[in-house]
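Handout, section B. The chain below has 233 residues.
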Amino acid sequence: MALPILNTQTFELNIPSTDEKIKYRPFLVKEEKILLQAQEGSGDEVTDAILQIVDNCTFGKINVEQLPSFDIEYIFLKIRSKSVGEKVKLNLSFPGDEKTKVQTEVDLSKIIVEMDDDHTNQVSLTDNVSVIMRYPTVKTFQGMDLAKFTADDTIALTANCIHQIVDGVETYEAKDLSKKEINDFLENLTQAQFTAIQKFFASMPKLTHDVKLTHPKTKKKGTVKLQGLRSFF
């Protein structure tokens, strides 16, 4: 006689980039095992584990490798909040005093993806030439050391996120261009033009939350802005 498989409660959320409503469930012991094993390895292994958990817990209904990174971070945080609790305790450095740690409680249910009203994925370089960008996925950052981001990494990230290049009435699809062609295009931009493209990344939606802290000795008030999934662990 087969052992019973317990039913798991499901919840709903809206994907930030599309506002599409999807169902999800908390992660189970098998998914927690995947994450714990990945945390003993490299950052790329953690990324793969997060993608697998999101895929499992959303019942394979979304393409986890194509969604923007901020969507995946948001969905994973929602899954985690329903799995181990909505409140997490963090030790955060007080602003301007890195040696002083303040323990605070953060409600994961309050975490949002912050949208910039001025953000756009179309960047004008000249009167005739513009680029249409696409959001980086979690996979886009694999193999990159974000703590030691080089000029080559910046160009590689930018190249990976170009969707189209528009020259007057001519539109070039990035998928039809070689890596060398896109790199040559980027390396021949002026610094001002390249900076304009980088504003796309700086203003793109982010998983963020402001945390108010009180210095334990001076009682001074301060605010720390948490950004990105790793900030909440």
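Note. DSSP finds six helices and eleven strands in the chain. Compare this with the example in section A.
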